[in-house]
Amino acid sequence: xxxxxxxxxxxxxxxxxxxxxxxxxxxxxxxxxxxxxxxxxxxxxxxxxxxxxxxxxxxxxxxxxxxxxxxxxxxxxxxxxxxxxxxxxxxxxxxxxxxxxxxxxxxxxxxxxxxxxxxxxxxxxxxxxxxxxxxxxxxxxxxxxxxxxxxxxxxxxxxxxxxxxxxxxxxxxxxxxxxxxxxxxxxxxxxxxxxxxxxxxxxxxxxxxxxxxxxxxxxxxxxxxxxxxxxxxxxxxxxxxxxxxxxxxxxxxxxxxxxxxxxxxxxxxxxxxxxxxxxxxxxxxxxxxxxxxxxxxxxxxxxxxxxxxxxxxxxx
Length: 316
Hints:
316 residues; alpha/beta
């Protein structure tokens, strides 16, 4: 029995972590127990216990870790607290899930990575795109019909004008393309609008890619397209039922799937499959994937893009 605690009871934690954890615990009661939820706001922690089945609430992380001695902890902190709390869990040798973007600077992220290397504590970074069923189906299909020659991704949002968007949110898309096409050799960025990014990627195996980051384009949608000679796979990953998969080969649509309206969101967006990976790794003694080391290159690219754009803007 794996005793899991949750640190952080905000809205993102609710939809992307507590809900799939509760679903997994209900389906596998012999495998996991949700022992505690912690938040500085005790009322939020209590509400999580009532809504998702955590057994006890806490408003102090150290007290929860000392009293419960959990086998694992899912950590969903504000960006400025990710490194501090992540280091605490790693140093205590508590297997953990840590949210992206892994810190507010590369210096912070490297410090977190250094602690992970030193402690060798089992951990996993929460980047749910790597677990999205349709995206993984497209990836597997293209691996069978490739080689992959070109990838394209678009992340569209509404009224997301925060300065950190490129490294706090767009990292999801950049990391998904690394997961699909491999390591990035170089990139170039242009900005057709104040907060919009057009990114050209050259991957080390020769694949080319383009990414459109459009945070203020009036809707919520992500799409991923994979191309090979005679083949194309497209995944739409919006909100709710706005999720689909199409695979084309030699002019024919050979795979087509759409999200079912009755299917819970955490099953569509990869959050539940992320929980499955974490628990499976802990049960078998294997290291969960992806690790901090796996995600650091995505973070580095995101911060380098932000830095290059800032430098261009200062020069102008």
